[in-house]
Amino acid sequence: MTKRKSEIDTAELRRRAESMTQWLVAHPLQGEADAQKLLHELQVYQVELEMQNAELKLTQDETAAMLRQVTLLNKRLEKTAKDNSASSDKIDAALRAESAILARMCDEMRSPLKVITSMSRQIRRSGVDAAQAKCLDKLDAASMQLSGIIDAAPAPPKRAPG
Fold it and tell me: How many domains does the chain have?
């Protein structure tokens, strides 16, 4: 498992601090030069810590900005999902209405179609010549085709119990 950069930096800082502490124990300050050197090292560490702190604050600000963007995107997605759901309900209602109208039209066409088919049979029984039979054949074929179309139409939607 790889360490993140901040974990490595923290470990490095810790190692350096322990090393400096051990050096101070092993080498007590002997004079002004040692004190100046130690002060310089502490100032360098202080600047490093301040730089890391500034970087941390910048990263926190960037993270907060990204969080705001993600929150905004989530709200937009929720709104879009709700809008799509509402649109879906409207589409479903329109399709049910269309299906009901189509079913009603089919029901309305069945009665006249039955009359036409019945009349064709009755005319044939009374006797027809070849030309008339040919016309009645066309009428029967058209009736059967229309009957097939009507039968293939969707059934009317069931009404919800109310």
Answer: 1
Query: Which H helix or E strand runs over 145?
Result: helix 130-152
C-alpha–C-alpha distance, residues 34 and 70, integer Å: 53
Supply the range of the domain harboring residue 104: 33-152
Distance of CA 73 to the CA centre of its chain: 12
Taking the CA atoms of the chain, what radius of gyration do you get in angstroms? Answer: 45
Burial pattern 140-153, b for ≥16 Cβ within 10 A else e, equals eeeeeebbeebeee
Residue 74 lies in a domain: yes
Residue 47 located in a structural domain: yes
* Interval 56-109: pLDDT, tens: 888 888 888 898 888 888 888 888 878 777 788 888 888 888 888 888 888 888
pLDDT over threshold 70, residue 137: yes
Q: Which two tokens stand for residue 63?
A: 């993270």
Q: Percent of the chain having pLDDT more than 90? A: 0
- Is residue 20 assigned to a domain? no
Phi, psi of 157 (to 5 degrees): -65, 145
Give residue 162's pLDDT band: very low, low, confident or very high (50, 70, 90).
very low
Question: Amino acid identity of 3?
Answer: K
Helix (H) or strand (E) holding 57: helix 32-126
Task: Indicate whether 26 belongs to any domain.
Answer: no
